[in-house]
């Protein structure tokens, strides 16, 4: 890749620096990494688990990044890991290892990839009441992973196409929605596992067995499901992504309660371990009000109620000024309002708090392009590549930055590379048009 030092000559005649409107359109490109197919020569593993590990390795890091990365709380991380380790001993597949991450996302979400990568949003954890409910949530995701398969959204033949579908869909959306996951349904992407009601019910039965065998009350699962049903009635917008992998919640409450009574009645009197829960989540509990404000703000952003959303985000930041997730949401809200300088300041603050999260690099790059600062955009994109390599969106944005920096030939290379991923969507249209403009 070219270095920024070699990309600082003036822009050639005909290569246009981007207007704010252009760059806002560019923000609609995918925030994901494409799947890479193994070559026949290098494909030595043919088992279902080898395939599952490939899916996890390619999709899970991208989805974790979209969910704003891991909550940096060592006490919480160790506590959740201890519960996962207890449930791990009940997993029937010896080649399946549970790896649970608590993520900064504010909506209520839990998902599992087929090799055991599990994501739980902090919004979800804050909806729980005790350790038995957290164990039930992890057991349910472990049961999904144990099934060893993951359905993709309608229209996607394989995981690679799901990534391309995400790219095209994002490039048709408004400027701020793809990075935020606000395309009409909070947090939804084509990278998330999708399950049928029958698959979910099968996982329910297995989760009840795991809970009982691990020493938890099996009744924690129907209690958890009922709590989520009640919360969804109050705030359905927070559950759009969760519903993809957990359909038919209402009917599952009754069925899991019946099985818990019939087959696991002896587990009913076991402790729910609320004191351990409060101790392990003490840092998270301190952010309850902050997460609530962020949830309100994100739903307001869905309605494009920017001033109200910003007010709620600022209220959240007043409580914890260095919260990476809220800093990012505030930057995205400010960007949508056209306050690009303020947005860049919040991105810089987010990167200072957590320099290892790639989403901030990409938002920083797009904001830099919007303010005609392609050299800084280049540096941000290089940082993104170091953290999360292979993203076609970064290939495209590097082309935009190089064109603005006067490197027409290198820009054309990047545009052509992006068109190798997809020829659909606004980003592809932009790349094609500028290849013609550059005479390439």
From TrEMBL:
Keyword terms, alphabetized: Hydrolase, Metal-binding, Metalloprotease, Protease, Zinc
Domain Peptidase M48: 81-254
Metal-binding recorded as keyword: yes
InterPro entries named in the record: Peptidase_M48, TPR-like_helical_dom_sf
Required cofactor(s): Zn(2+)
Biological processes per GO annotation: proteolysis
Cofactor, how bound (note): Binds 1 zinc ion per subunit.
GO molecular function (one): metal ion binding
Family per record: Belongs to the peptidase M48 family.
Protein name as catalogued: Putative Zn-dependent protease
Organism for this UniProt entry: Sphaerotilus mobilis
